[in-house]
């Protein structure tokens, strides 16, 4: 499936940014603008069922991965994936082949008993008003709130069927053995997607782990600290 892709910059280094559930490429605006200023040509797709991209089948992560691979250039200098986008990036890694990859509170582990809760929470978030989002994210600019409301209204909530529980393949796969030198994982102090025993496992495998901020939307809630991590690594 060919995805809608938003672009920034015209540098000779490519960067691919992959958003999470109930969001869109708009979530990366501030990050993309900074990267473009640093000489990157940034590509941020709307995943299937999100933003301006088509709807479709949601039964397999492989479908989401193939969408991204069909829609963005291979061999980018940098790839960043947030939440579900982090899982998609990790599954796409061997074929996308970025020089460096950053996983932002990636959906590598969802305890089976919280799957129903996660689905309900995300499903209900699709009904949030501008006023409720502002209360939940008081530090966000009004423009960011408006873009998030737009993304929630565009999002196909039936895509939630893709969420399943347990430790996902990247944690135990060749990913940790072959890409640890070129990968950074950024997680908040409170992460329900990456419990401490999982992040410790990643760190023991050699992947660099940075703790930034307190909430899941690290790249928006703790933007300056997040960009420090990105720039020091990339």
Notes on the protein architecture:
By secondary structure, the protein is α/β, with parallel strands linked by helices. The protein has a single domain (5-233), classed as Rossmann fold (3-Layer(aba) Sandwich), CATH 3.40.50. Helix content is 41%, strand content 17%. The protein is built from 11 helices and 9 strands. It has a 7-stranded mixed β-sheet with strand order 1-3-2-4-5-8-9, with helices on both faces. The longest helix has 13 residues, at 84-96. The protein is globular and about 40 Å long. The model has no long low-confidence stretch (mean pLDDT 88).
Summarize the structure.
The chain is of the alpha/beta class. The chain has one domain: Rossmann fold (3-Layer(aba) Sandwich), CATH 3.40.50. It has eleven helices and nine strands.
Task: Describe the SSE topology.
Elements: E1 5-8, E2 13-18, H1 29-37, E3 40-45, H2 61-71, E4 78-82, H3 84-96, E5 100-104, E6 109-110, H4 115-125, H5 130-136, H6 142-154, E7 166-167, H7 169-172, H8 174-178, E8 183-187, H9 196-204, E9 208-211, H10 218-221, H11 223-233
Parallel strand pairs: 2-3, 2-4, 4-5, 5-8, 8-9
Antiparallel strand pairs: 1-3, 6-7
